[in-house]
Amino acid sequence: MATTVSFTVDTAHGPRPVSVEYERTGTGEPLVLLHGIGHHHQAWEPVTRILAAEREVIAVDLPGFGASPGLPDGVPYSLETVPSIFGALFGALGLDRPHVAGNSLGGLFALELGRTELVRSVTALSPAGFWNEPERRYAFATLRAMRRAALALPVPAIERLSRSAAGRTALTSTIYARPGRRSPEAVVAETLALRGATGFHQTLAAGRGVTFTDEVKGIPVTVAWGTRDRILLRRQGVRAKHVLPDARLVRLPGCGHVPMNDDPALVARVILDTSR
C-alpha cells in the first residue's frame, strides 16, 4: 500500500515542504527505485516481488509524477536539487545510504545520487544525460508526442484500447518492446499518470542543457541498456561507459526503454548483482 511522507528541503529562500508517495516492501538492505519521466512507481511492479526477496524495496513517485504533488515554489526541477531532495527523503524514511536503481530520468537521478555519495550502489537503466543534441531533441519530441496523445484520448478510449494486445501496443510500444505483456489495468494507470504528470513540462525544460559528465567513484555502478530502446538509443550506453569507465555496462537483449516489463528476471538480476 502506498504511503505519503513529507519533509523539508533547504533553499536560498528558506525551507520548503515536499511530499512524496512511495511503497515499501520486503526485507534486507534498502533499495530505492526511481521511475522515468511521465511514469509512476508502479513501473517497477514486474520486478518488485523478485527484488523484495533480498531487499527492502522503496519504490518512489518522483515529485510531480504519479501520486506525488509537484515541487513547491523555490525548489526547481533540476539535477542540482536532486541531492537535497533525496537526502531529505532518505532521512525522513530512516535510510542510510540505500542502494538505488533508476530508469531513464530516474537513472540520471540515481547517478547523481551516486556522484554525491548519498547511496551505496547505482543501477541505471537507460539513463538520461548521455545524449548528443540531435538525440536529445529526438527523445524530447517523442516524449511530448506521447504526452499529447495521452491527453487527447478520452478515458473510455484508453480503457477500450487497453483490453486488446493491439491496443496496448498502440498505447505503450514506444516504451516497451513487449507491450502485450503489460496488463490492461497497468496500461490504463500509466497512461493516466502521463496525462496527470504535473512536473512534466518543467522537467523537460530543465533537461535541455543536461549531460552527465562526472565519474561516480567508490561504489558499484551498472549502466544497462535495452537493445530495443526507441527513446534513448542504445549507443548512448557506450557513451556512458566512456564517462563512467569503472561502471559495468550491460546489454538487455530484446528490452525497450522501460525494461522492467520486458524481462523482469533479467532486470532484477542486474540490480541485485550490482547491490551485492
TrEMBL record:
InterPro entries: AB_hydrolase_1, AB_hydrolase_fold. Gene3D superfamilies: alpha/beta hydrolase. Keywords: Hydrolase. Residues 31-269 form the AB hydrolase-1 domain. One of its GO terms (molecular function) is hydrolase activity. It comes from the Bacteria. It holds the Pfam family Abhydrolase_6. PANTHER family: ALPHA/BETA-HYDROLASES SUPERFAMILY PROTEIN (PTHR46438), LIPASE-RELATED (PTHR46438:SF11). This is Alpha/beta fold hydrolase.
